[in-house]
Amino acid sequence: MSFVRNTIALRLGLGATLGALAQLSALALLAVSGYLISRAWEQPPILYLMVAITSVRLFGISRGVLRYTERLVSHDAAFRGLERLRIAVWRKLVRLAPAGVPVWRSGDLQARLVDDVDGVGDRWLRGALPLASAVIVAVCAVVLQTALLPAAGAVLAACLLAAALAGPALATWTSRYAVRATASARGDLTEGVRALLHGREELVAAGTDAAALEHVLEGDDRLRRAHARIAWTAGLGEAAGLLALAAAVTGALATGIPAVAAGTLDGVLLAVVALVPLAAFEPVLALPAAAQQTAVAKACGRRLLEITQAPEPRPDPAEPMEYEPNPLGGPPFIEIKRLSVTWPGAEEPALHGFDLTVQPGERVAVMGPSGSGKSTLAAALMGFLPYEGTLRFGGVELAEYDGDDIRRTVGLCSQDAHVFDTTLAENLRLARPGADDGDLARALRWAGLRDWLEALPDGLQTRLGEHGRAVSGGERGRIALARCLLADREVLVLDEPDAHLDAATAERVLRTAAAALEGKTTIIITHRPLPEGVVDRVVHLRGPVPTPRRDAPDNRLLGVAPPG
Amino acid sequence: MTTLAPKPAGVDRRLLHRARGAAVFIGVCAALGAARTACVVAGAWLTASLIAGAFAGGRSLDSLAPQLIALAIVLALRALLASVQEAAAHRASAGVKSGLRRQALEQLMRLPSGKHHTGRTAALLVRGIDALDGYFARYLPQLVLAVVVPVGVLAVMLIAYPPAALIVLLTLPLIPLFGILIGLYTRSRAERQWEATSHLAHHFADLVAGLPTLKAFGRAAKQAGAIEVTTGSYRRRSMSLLRVAFCSALVLELAASLSVAVVAVTVGVDLVEGGLTGEAGLKTALLVLILAPEAYLPLRNVGAHYHASAEGLAAAEQVFAILGDTPEHAETASEPDTTGTAASALARWSGRGSTPGPETKPGSAAITASRTMRTPLGRAPTIMFRRTVFAYPGRQPLPELSLTVPAGQTTVLTARSGAGKSTLMAALVGFRQPVSGSIAFDDAELTDLDLAAVRRSIAWLPQRPVLIDGTVAENVRLAVPDGASDPAVAKAIAAAHAPAATRTVAADGSGLSAGEAARVGLARFLLRVDLLDPPVLLLDEPTAHLDSDTEQAVLDSFAPYRDQRTVLIASHRPAVRAIADREVDW
């Protein structure tokens, strides 16, 4: 990994060097041309000028070629770097999901992954590389100018320094607020537009599409105002650089002309002294834009850091126990005592003092009202969340096991299972990559989707649209169920499997699934009674009872209803 | 990152046409450009004469001081002009972007849902359009300068020293020529690459959204390998394209620096051979040397900003595609004049002869429409589906259906999932059209009725009600077009057992649980019923996310609203079925 990163740094360094050499060629071209013309005016034999003439032509060619090479090298390096970054962010997200990312806002996360990673790439290409070449060129120009005429060198150094500091500082200083404002305004606007498009039919039917549109466009107005603020700072940065250039050219002439008169500077070189600032300023004038780019990229980098530095909700143990919850094979014995589970960032546990023992192969329903912590129980069983109390598989605390090991035994069929934007077959096969079409069709049949599958024109190869949009809520739930049946886990947690189904379909599906799950442990989480005979027993979860804090008044005494 | 231009960028006429103020902005750019050219020429002339005066003329600083001060002023003026231009450009750009965004969104609200991918469209309207900054703030001003500056500089060079002007004149056209040739050569590949970029973005978003699912199946870590392969091949394709695309920049740089070299050598040789002599000769030589690179500078900047503008232009292209789409046909008929027809259609629907005469002013007709809306209260319509068949592209059509929803009663649809219950409701508000069969309110065919009027007399609660950024109250207010009083909103919120009015909601629903979001939608629905008094109520799975206690409480508060209205509910819940006058399954 560090080797790879080093080669990327090397590539970027090479890019910076080539960029500086290209700019130096431009400087040399102008300087030598000035000398050539001044010297030619003295009308020496043309042979005396041959070196200058050849160099002028050489520099004329080298600049273009160097610049072309620099672009290829640096873009390649940036692409490679971004590849690494994207994968690193993905790896971190994998460890955080689903509990560790405070808000799993899909729109915002999309912006984070695509925009922010690209933003960091811009920081290299349009921020760091121009800065590196500008510094190299400025130093070389000052050295040359000082060698010709120390006073002119000092003036140039001062002007370059002023331009390099003031321009970017002005550009970043005032725009910082606007940059921050646009980032959140963009996120809000994206979400707003998305909601507007999703809910279009409802809004149009209610006649409130125009009102909702105006509401969302308020976000656009915020964005526009933020951009207008950036505008003036960009102008200021540009002006600062050009003013410094004006001072540098005037200063070079103001020191050069007396020096020629005094004889400390050869008159032939006066043109060189006057022209060097023009070329030296070219990369420096690009610095405000580079600085603004860097500022934008920094915000992107900060948001990426929020992800990469977020604490893992349930870090895997350093030395995980060897995973063998049931040495005889089959489902493990599950033992839950006084289980308390708190979501990261939450103050109160979502599940408190829960007890449950599940024999291998047993089918248990956990029933409770909304907000009683049913889904939290599922997340804890999947090894997604840390817990207090006892949660043992085959006598070993779940916390001792590696999360991926746990999930090889426990499967979760959740309400919000994602349907990927790909074919039905691929959506199912992620549960068992080796499964053949027969396995897939069987799993769909078990989930009660036989008729649906037969009606699909492309069968298993039917593409399920964006977020499974082309499938109804009930179908989505059953596809998720089929996926879980296909995965063939020893323990399966079904979270509200009948949420979007009519009673008859729900009963049929649950009975078929129960038959398919014979011999496996099944925990069905539900908020309404299940059909007779689907489960062996029902465990009730209490509703959320607010535990009065010692410093807070007891709400129940004041007659205020508990939340939820 | 550099994204590739799908086509050679230029002055996009549609963009300028769409964007009010853009033409003025180009005029401002041209005026500023002319002033900047004057500064460039004056600066070069003053610099050349100062060098020549000191070196060839042997003059002292004192005698040259006025010229030196003039030089300082001219260069400072140039800085000022540049800053004004930059600021003006950003302002113009911000305005154009807002306008484009509004037009696109307004158009999208008229287009059938599902035609454009929502996630990608949202990204296009925000990130894509924002990228137009590169075009307006950087590319376009440089493009104007690239026309104004070379013309001015060439004119001066032609007067001062024709051979140098000729060199510049010969090389300058090579730059756009090669740019166009290379652009044409890479065009189709660049278009594909642009698609690959957005595909890559969507692929990531999809993976991230499904990450919890992938992790549950132990597939998340392995996906990193797949991402590596995808992005790796994306990089290789991008680089092979860039190798060609950067050639246009190479030609530009070569033409610019080589012609400066050639000018320098030509002038130098002429000086040696005595073609140019004296202080004036040196001054001319230096003037053309300083001016020559200035002729190419704007073009080089155009090249530098070309890639920055490409992304925005490609986005603009997609926005124009949206703007060029034909709106949902049912709505095109009703939207332009929702007034006259609304009243007459409604009159037919309610079965009363209160049709306003053709001489009635459109405005008053609209008022009549909303008044008549309240009269058919006693006459809630019977809804009839006669042998209707609905079909989705790429799917087998749903089975033929005939169904009567009796007037003033509550009908619960209990058909199995996927039988088309939501489709029926969407059809009643005109978002789905049956491929055969008909839908009628009393005796009036839906297709003969004015859709806007039909929609005004229906309250529809879809399965997933929309949420916007803001408070719960703001969300509930989306029930009716003309706003609602605070007490009315509070009443609806209480009746729906929705979260507190001041709670904030994000557009993606975060901040609320699924059950709470459902109850916000329900509150909106009840508010609409309260204020508009619609005779038809459609509820799609209104209690799917509620536990049985809340469900019962919500159904209890809903009970008075059902009176004297034609109510259609899709649900399998026993509590909902208990309130039905009639259950329908098919």
From TrEMBL, chain A:
Which subcellular locations apply to this protein? Cell membrane
Q: Which UniProt keywords apply?
A: ATP-binding, Membrane, Nucleotide-binding, Transmembrane, Transmembrane helix
- Superkingdom is Bacteria
Q: What is the membrane topology here?
A: Multi-pass membrane protein
- Domain named ABC transporter: residues: 336-561
Some GO term, biological process aspect, for this entry: which one?
A: cell redox homeostasis
Q: Report the transmembrane regions from the record.
A: 46-66, 128-148, 154-173, 230-254, 260-281
Q: Extract one GO molecular function annotation from the record.
A: ATP binding
Instruction: Enumerate the residue ranges of region (Disordered).
Output: 544-564
For this record, the Gene Ontology CC terms, alphabetical, are: plasma membrane
InterPro entries, alphabetized: AAA+_ATPase, ABC1_TM_dom, ABC1_TM_sf, ABC_CydC/D, ABC_transporter-like_ATP-bd, P-loop_NTPase, Type_1_exporter
Domain ABC transmembrane type-1, residue spans: 14-293
What protein does this entry describe?
ATP-binding cassette subfamily C protein CydC
Automatic annotation (TrEMBL), chain B:
Q: What PROSITE patterns is this protein classified in?
A: ABC_TM1F, ABC_TRANSPORTER_1, ABC_TRANSPORTER_2
Where does the ABC transporter domain lie?
A: 383-584
Which Gene Ontology BP annotations are present? Answer: cysteine transport
Major location category of this protein: membrane
Does the keyword Membrane belong to this entry? yes
Q: Which locations, inside or outside the cell, does it occupy?
A: Cell membrane
Q: Where is this region: Disordered?
A: 329-372
The record's annotation in Gene3D superfamilies points to:
ABC transporter type 1, transmembrane domain, P-loop containing nucleotide triphosphate hydrolases
Keywords from the named record: ATP-binding, Membrane, Nucleotide-binding, Transmembrane, Transmembrane helix
Give the Pfam families listed for this entry.
ABC_membrane, ABC_tran
Q: Which residues form the ABC transmembrane type-1 domain?
A: 28-311
Q: Name one GO cellular component term.
A: plasma membrane
Highest taxon of the lineage: Bacteria
Q: Extract the InterPro entries matched here.
A: AAA+_ATPase, ABC1_TM_dom, ABC1_TM_sf, ABC_transporter-like_ATP-bd, ABC_transporter-like_CS, ABC_transptr_CydD, P-loop_NTPase, Type_1_exporter
For this UniProt entry, which segments traverse the membrane?
21-52, 64-81, 143-161, 167-185, 244-268
The answer to whether the entry has keyword Translocase is: no
One of the entry's Gene Ontology molecular-function terms is: ATP hydrolysis activity
Q: Which CDD domains match?
A: ABC_6TM_AarD_CydD (cd18584), ABCC_MRP_Like (cd03228)
Q: How does it sit in the membrane?
A: Multi-pass membrane protein
Listed NCBIfam families: CydD
Q: What is this protein called?
A: ATP-binding cassette subfamily C protein CydD
Q: Which organism is it from?
A: Glycomyces algeriensis
